[in-house]
Design goal:
With about 350 residues, this protein is an alpha+beta fold. Helices cover about 25% and strands about 20% of the residues. α1 packs across α4.
């Protein structure tokens, strides 16, 4: 892998991750861009104890542009985009409309491929491995920023999720705090450790799923994927490395090498859940990594990926209505065991 860092016309950082070492990235961004102006503010909710990012400047972000004006495609034929090069393997740049900026953190965009009409599931294993290298490198670099407490790599896929750019891409958030969801995991982790005399909750959870087997979707030498016992979403898969590590930086070489095959298989199964004639399955794919403070909890945290869809059956979505949105109590229409069985049925032959 070769990494090249450059700057866009408004000063934002752009990084190319290339499969070949001999690629030269010397293109310049000639667009007449105004300096990025953000109004990101973190406000604490005194009742719930969580944080809300107020980012009014995002109202003007790019919204469903036509394919021939996509800002994530390479710059070609006189059309200039966020990527000055005429081609790339993986590109990462600071978001022009960030939810978090400055002392409030950092937001980046990850372009998985120059092919506008592809998806992550269409990547080769070599390309998927390069994306994993980019995620890992960005985690390492953002960890060095004093304002970043936790790094979140994720992909929103599909209009049903709220995606406003159709080009295959993901995002990376560098939060200035430990996110509420991770804080809940850490609390459960500590309670389990106290209750069991030092046992690790993540280890016990994975061991239980492997022992029961009914919710296991895929087993590989270094990874295991299963539908969780109390899945919130109709089709939800959690992917864990068998050797517990706190974040992507600590992932072993063997697990790193095996990941592309396993992850691509899961994504391709997701597209077959509802049948071959159905449109692509919308999903959110989210890496959960340990925050950088709290060394004891950090050692005990388990890196894992959570993949889920908001589609509950053909043509119908799972909406977060009164119980979910008002009280955070999810109601799942699909039994986890049935979801796991379907995800095994659509395995690649």
């Amino acid at each position: 892998m070769k990494k090249t860092s450059t700057r866009l016309a408004d000063g934002r950082e752009l990084l190319y991750y290339d499969l070949r070492d001999d690629v030269v990235r010397d293109e310049t961004d000639t667009r007449p861009l105004d300096p990025v102006s953000t109004a990101s503010e973190i406000r604490r909710d005194p009742l719930l104890g969580d944080a809300v990012a107020i980012a009014s400047h995002r109202q003007g972000r790019t919204y469903h542009p036509p394919a021939d004006d996509c800002p994530l495609c390479p710059s070609r034929d006189g059309r200039h985009s966020e990527i000055p090069a005429a081609g790339y393997d993986v590109a990462v740049f600071e978001n022009r409309f960030p939810s978090l900026a400055g002392d409030s953190g950092r937001c980046e965009v990850v372009c998985f491929t120059p092919d506008h009409d592809a998806s992550f599931a269409d990547l080769t294993e070599e390309q998927a491995a390069l994306v994993l290298e980019a995620w890992t490198d960005r985690t390492a670099e953002l960890a060095e920023l004093p304002q970043v407490e936790q790094v979140f790599c994720f992909e929103n896929r599909g209009a049903e999720i709220g995606v406003t750019l159709g080009h295959p891409h993901g995002q990376i958030y560098g939060y200035p705090f430990t996110t509420p969801r991770t804080a809940l995991m850490l609390r459960s982790l500590a309670e389990h450790r106290e209750r069991t005399g030092g046992r690790n909750l993540f280890d016990d959870l994975v061991a239980r799923e492997l022992a029961e087997g009914v919710r296991v979707v895929l087993e590989a030498e270094h990874w295991v994927a299963f539908v969780p016992y109390a899945a919130h979403w109709p089709y939800e898969v959690h992917l864990y490395p068998r050797a517990r590590v706190p974040d992507l930086r600590a992932l072993g070489e063997a697990a790193r090498a095996e990941f592309p095959r396993v992850y691509l298989e899961l994504l391709r199964r997701f597209d077959r859940i509802f049948g071959e004639a159905e449109p692509p399955t919308p999903y959110i794919s989210a890496w959960h990594q340990a925050p950088f403070s709290g060394p004891a909890d950090r050692r005990d945290f388990a890196l894992h990926l959570e993949l889920f869809t908001v589609r509950r059956t053909s043509g119908k979505l799972k909406f977060l209505a009164g119980s979910e949105s008002g009280m955070s109590v999810f109601i799942n229409d699909v039994p986890p065991e049935a979801a796991a069985r379907r995800l095994r049925e659509v395995a690649s032959t």
